[in-house]
Amino acid sequence: MSDTRHTKVLIIGSGPAGYTAGVYASRAMLEPILVQGMEPGGQLTTTTDVENYPGYTEVQGPDLMIKMEEHARAMGTEIIGDIILDLDLSKRPFTAKGDSGTLYTADTVILATGARAKWLGLPSEEKFKGFGVSACATCDGFFYRGQEIVVVGGGNTAVEEALFLTNFASKVTLIHRRDELRAEKILINRLMKNEKIEPLWDHQLEEVVGDDMPLGVTGVRAKHVKTGEITEIPAKGVFIAIGHAPANELVKDVLDTHMGGYVVTKPDSTATSIPGVFAAGDLTDHKYRQAVTSAGMGCMAALEAEHFIAEQDD
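^ that's the sequence the OP posted. Answer follows.
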């Protein structure tokens, strides 16, 4: 027999949005259950220095998430290490099936599943994932001390990864399919001043090349987008930094989405297209994608869930 748990507020996801929702829902005496998901703490657990979260001049990403989790627990949030596999929003109470076999039922749901890195979809990229190909410089950068590295992308993510990797690498080649970057000016200025970084404009990654025994990257083949000419670049590490996609698998066919799958919320609200279901953080935010804005939306979601429940009880 599977265990069934009921809660007034079920929070799915455990980044800044989820934990902040837990704090506020607990303070409203709603006794929320928070299911952490596949990556407890979310994307900040793969970040090192965080310098833009209020109250911390500098803090390590994993440390910040540990503090948020502790805060939510201290307020009364029940935090469960489970993964939601299926979510039924067709009727209330809403039901969610956990990988553990637990069935969660809830009067309201706060979705805070976040986003995850995008990949190019190349067979060679897939072959060398974890063996020289990565989407997280802060996770894997230290493996490449004194080595030559390639970063693919042209936005904030790519520039930040390239700059971070200069702490380890002897050289970083930034491959971008356009002739200018789409990152913030301050980041572009830092990149252009860094002698370790060499941009390769108007190119796209064609293939990751390497050895099979043992499995490892030795370089890449990049194709000029206009001429088709191939350039071979030696590298021990390849970092794909082309942005993120919302983790919307549970709701993409049920809730309204836009901008490539981000959940639509009502203006100045976290309310989704289904009453009683709220979305916060990177799952809905295609614009800012910051820890502090995610936390703010987590607060909004909890307050709106409290208001929704109160209205149902009247």
